[in-house]
Amino acid sequence: MATLFEHIGFHIHNEEEVYRLADFVLNAGAIHVTENGFYARWIDPSGSEIWSRTALDHKTEQANFLNIDPHFHGDTVWNLVLGRELAEEKDDALDGKFVLHTEDESKFITARIQGAQAISEKEEGKVYPFQIALMPHTVRFYANEDAYRAATGDELSILGMCMPRGMYSRLVVSEDSRPEEILLTTLIGRIRSSDLRTIERGGDKISSFMHFTVETQFGTIDVPVANSLCQDVDLDEVGVMSVTGTFSAVMMGKGKTE
Q1: Which end of the chain has the least Cβ crowding within 10 Å, N or C?
Q2: Residues 149-153: contacts with CB under 8 Å, at least 24 apart
C-alpha cells in the first residue's frame, strides 16, 4: 500500500523522515503567517506540492510542528461556494476542512483547504476558484465501465459521481461501527489522460509518479498516483479508475457573492 506522499514522489517510512521532510519544506518553501502559527508551502515543477503546519505558543514563544499534507499543483480549478467548516475535536488549530458546493447546491465535495487559517478573505457563502486534486488512499484500474461493474458487482454507482463517504458514514454510525475519516471520498470515473511526472534536482531525476485526469460531475480532476500502484497496469488498456481518497484544495483568488 502506497503512502499519501508516495503519490507525489516522496517515500516516507518513519516519523524521523516526516520531520526531515517538514524541515525541508520549511526551509525551501514560502511562508504564510496566521495569528496562531504559520504554514510553509513548497511546489515542484512536477506538480508535487507539500504544506506544513506549525503552531506558535505566544506565552512561551515556542514553535510546535503540527503536520504536513501532500497536494498536487495541477490544472483543475473549480468555482465553488465555501460552505461550513467540518472541524473535529482531533483537528489542530491550523487544519481546515470544509464543505464546497455548486451555486445551485446540487453537488458538493468535502475538502481540506490548504493554508485555510492564513486566508484573509474567506467568507462562507461566497464563490471562490479552488485548485483541487484528489489525493488517493486506494486506487483500482479497469478496462472500461463494464469491466468495473463485472469485477465489483456495483450496478448503482454513476461514473463521475464523487461520493462523500466520510460525511455519509456519520449518518449511519452505530455502537458497533466508527465513522470514517470525514473527508474520505470515493470516485469512479473515466480516465481522460495520464503522464509520468518527474522530480529533479540539479538535472538528476530523484523520483517520479503518475498523473491522471479523471472525469467527475464537476469536470476533470487531477489524481496523482504512486508508481508502485501502476507497475502491473497496462495504461493503454485501462479506461476507468476507482479512487478512494481526500480532496485537497488551494484557494486561488477572491470570491464573489452568490
Answers
A1: N
A2: 152/242
pTM: 0.91
What is the spatial distance between Cα 20 and Cα 232, in angstroms, rounded to a whole number? 31
- Tell me the pairing of strands 77-85 and 97-101: antiparallel
Find out whether 108 and 219 touch, Cβ atoms under 8 Å.
Answer: no
pLDDT tens per residue across span 109-134: 999 999 999 998 889 999 999 999 99
Nearest residue to 6 (alpha-carbon basis) of 256, 245, 253, 252: 245
Record the cell numbers describing residue 182, joined without a space. Answer: 470525514
Spatial contact of 254 and 121, defined as CB atoms under 8 Å apart: yes
Say which residue the cell 469536470 belongs to: 219
Q: Which residues of 59-73 are buried (b: 16+ CB within 10 A; e: fewer)?
A: eeeeeeebebbbbbb
> Cell 479497469 maps to which residue?
142
Residue 71: name the closest of 122, 9, 127, 17 by CA: 9
Cβ count within 10 A of residue 113: 23
State whether residue 160 is helix, strand or coil: coil
